[in-house]
Design brief:
Length: about 170
């Protein structure tokens, strides 16, 4: 199975008085536009998760919803979208993995979360839980497993950033 770890797209600035709670901070219009453009660049990667797990924060939900919409247009198949409290800001890799184990149904998955959480999660899955892998906004990593996601059991297939396409 392949697990896609996704950092949310470009959101409003932290501390913006329009969003007194960080939970409610949405993607910007420009962030939506850039992420859609980025997904078009990724079409050759044949991303096709069965389920997409997202942090319940608004910016992650919006990123996950755009991913679902793009997948349906590019593959003709709709991915299931679920929200996972374990992916909230400050996510602990062990908590995310425990939640994943409880709900794993087979097939590829995508997890949409925050920095620095996604960087520590990816590192824990490919071998070093003490390291961090940089994820710019909108970046996606593909990690392959023989079965289900387990610490130190994944192989990093690729990590792609919108910066690669000047987006």
């Amino acid at each position: 199975m392949i697990l896609y770890i996704v950092r949310h797209a470009w959101a409003g600035e932290f501390g913006d008085p329009r969003y007194p709670s960080d939970f409610d901070r949405p993607l910007t219009d420009e962030g939506r536009k850039r992420f859609r453009k980025w997904l078009k660049h990724l079409e050759p990667a044949a991303i096709n998760p069965r389920v997409i797990w997202s942090s319940p924060y608004v910016r992650c939900k919006q990123t996950a919803e755009m991913l679902v919409e793009w997948l349906e247009k590019s593959t003709g198949r709709a991915a299931e979208l679920s929200y996972c409290d374990a992916l909230r800001c400050g996510a602990d890799p062990a908590g995310v993995l425990a939640e994943s184990q409880r709900s794993f149904g087979g097939g590829d998955e995508a997890w949409v979360g925050h920095m620095p959480d996604v960087s520590y999660l990816a590192a824990a899955l490919i071998g070093d839980g003490n390291a961090a892998i940089p994820f710019s906004k909108g970046s996606i990593a593909a990690i392959q497993f023989d079965d289900r996601p387990q610490p130190r059991a994944g192989e990093l297939l690729w990590l792609a950033s919108p910066k690669m396409a000047d987006i």
